[in-house]
């Protein structure tokens, strides 16, 4: 079975792919969080929430492994490079107190995954200090234990944490597909460019497909 994808059909194996949901945290999608402090229009990210919720429901029903990630730093900021904290010259920086607690700090209300996509017990939740989900985390050790070779990517933001993680996964031998309507950027033109970069050169980083194509193929293959 195949997912109807660009630049060519994405083959599904007997073992299902994992659904990867990158950084769907209040810090990026709600006013008063880290994304807002960087000067972004956070409302732009809302469009992918119902799409990811639909994919998540299908993944849970069909038994796909689900991996959530969250960008977060320890309360003492010992895992936050000063260069990252100082970048941008913003009024509020990582670790400063905002309306939802300290920005991008693990355990703060604003750092939590949004209610609509809350992880269930048993689903993997990777807490990552970088943009990529493999850097300084256990993800590389966890994936073989799940028997996963194929990854379906969703989340925010397309050209930052999603693309970085997809490139890290590609270099580690995973077959990666990005769900086009399951990801958003603060900059629509950067989202478009990312989709084009991933699929150019016969899929140099991987594939892109719509959530509709992904869901129908998953239902046909594993339903
Ligand atoms: N600023 C921005 O576009 N993204 C991030 O800082 N992190 C993620 O993409 N999750």
Low-confidence stretches: none
**What summary fits the major beta sheet?**
6 strands, parallel
Binned, the helix content reads 25-40%
Portion in strands: 15-25%
- Measured between the Cα atoms of the first and last residue, the distance is 12 Å
Question: How many beta-strand elements?
Answer: 10
Ligands bound to this protein structure: tricarbonodiimidic diamide
Biggest sheet: strands side by side, in what order?
A: 7-4-3-8-9-10
Outline? globular
Q: What pattern of helices and strands is seen along the backbone? A: EEEHHHEHEEEHEHEHEH
Radius of gyration over alpha carbons? 17 Å
Average pLDDT confidence is 97
Oligomer: single chain
* Helix-and-strand structural type: alpha/beta
Q: How many alpha or pi helices?
A: 8
Summarize this structure briefly.
The protein has 223 residues and is α/β, with parallel strands linked by helices.
Tell me what you see in this structure.
The protein is built from eight helices and ten strands. The strands form three sheets. It has a six-stranded parallel beta sheet, with helices on both faces. Helix 3 (48-62) packs parallel to helix 8. The longest helix has 16 residues, at 188-203. With 223 residues, it is of the alpha/beta class. The mean pLDDT is 97. The radius of gyration is 17 Å and the shape is globular. Tricarbonodiimidic diamide binds next to helix 6.
């Amino acid at each position: 079975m195949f997912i109807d994808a660009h630049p060519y059909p994405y083959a599904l194996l007997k073992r299902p792919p994992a659904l990867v949901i990158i950084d769907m945290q209040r810090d990026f999608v709600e006013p008063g969080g880290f994304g807002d402090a960087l000067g972004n229009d956070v409302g732009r990210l809302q469009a992918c929430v119902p799409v990811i919720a639909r994919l998540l429901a299908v993944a849970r029903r069909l038994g796909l492994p689900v991996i959530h990630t969250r960008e977060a730093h320890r309360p003492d900021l010992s895992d936050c490079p000063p260069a990252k904290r100082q970048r941008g010259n913003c009024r509020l920086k990582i670790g400063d107190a905002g309306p939802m607690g300290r920005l991008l700090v693990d355990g703060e209300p604003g750092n939590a995954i949004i209610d609509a996509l809350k992880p269930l017990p048993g689903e993997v939740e990777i807490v990552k200090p970088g943009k990529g989900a493999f850097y300084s985390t256990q993800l590389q050790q966890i994936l073989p234990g799940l028997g996963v070779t194929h990854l379906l990517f969703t989340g925010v933001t397309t050209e930052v944490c999603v693309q970085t993680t997809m490139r890290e996964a590609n270099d580690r031998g995973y077959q990666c597909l990005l769900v086009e309507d399951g990801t958003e950027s603060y900059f629509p033109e950067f989202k478009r460019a990312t989709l084009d970069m991933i699929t150019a050169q016969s899929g140099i980083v991987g594939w892109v497909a719509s959530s509709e194509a992904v869901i129908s193929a998953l239902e046909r293959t594993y339903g």
